[in-house]
Amino acid sequence: MDVADLRVAYRFGELADGGLADGWLTLARTWIEEAIAARLPEPNAIVLATIDADGAPATRTVLCKAIDERGIVFYTGTRSNKGQELAAHPVAAVTFPLIGMERQIHLRGPVERVSAEETLEYWNHRPRGSQLGAWASHQSAPIATREDLEAQLVEVTARFADVDPIPVPPHWGGYLLRPRLIEFWQGRADRLHDRLRIHPPDPTVIRLQP
């Protein structure tokens, strides 16, 4: 197979000049709701880009757990690679790759930690297994074998066997990206895609050539 020969004709929809008339948040939520209705896998998945110690970009996929007028929120280990990178360079870019809908939402801006209260509220909604996994994993740290990782989970499970609710780990929490650039991309025929961009808080909409 030659990937150069792969072709997709984008014909799902369009993004009119007035597509952001009700604001970026309304359109973002509409697109995500439509992705959920279409049963796209992981419709809240985002590709998160941070800056490493050498100034190089690093990307990975995480899950968006809140989207509101502030921006988007995700949760992770603060000692992970991305946690350390955000501590050193508190800026990021994220993309919702809504490929099944021939769409993308891209946001860039400064990142800050959410409050302990907000983190706790989300933590309490997590399944117990996910809570135990957050305690068991020293995220991004090397480990010799899979068996060693599973042994850590066994130890943590025993430690919290009689604890309910499980507390939030001190090395885990939420991050809020406050967008200073938001772009909506809609695939169109003949690669003449629609791209609308805004720079909050300025509501001016800019159409970009594809």
Describe the secondary structure blueprint for this structure.
Blueprint: H1 24-37, E1 45-51, E2 57-63, E3 66-68, E4 71-77, H2 81-88, E5 91-98, E6 103-113, H3 116-123, H4 128-136, H5 146-159, E7 172-177, E8 181-186, E9 194-199, E10 202-207
Antiparallel strand pairs: 1-2, 1-5, 3-4, 4-7, 5-6, 6-7, 6-8, 8-9, 9-10
Short note summarizing the structure:
This protein is α+β, with helices and mostly antiparallel strands. It has five helices and ten strands.
List keywords for this structure.
5 helices, Pnp Oxidase, Chain A, alpha+beta, 210 residues, ten-stranded antiparallel sheet
Q: How would you characterize this protein structure?
A:
The chain is an alpha+beta fold and 210 residues long. It has 2 domains: 3-124 and 168-207, Pnp Oxidase, Chain A; 127-164, no CATH class. It has helices at residues 24-37, 81-88, 116-123, 128-136, 146-159, and strands at 45-51, 57-63, 66-68, 71-77, 91-98, 103-113, 172-177, 181-186, 194-199, 202-207. The model has no long low-confidence stretch (mean pLDDT 96).
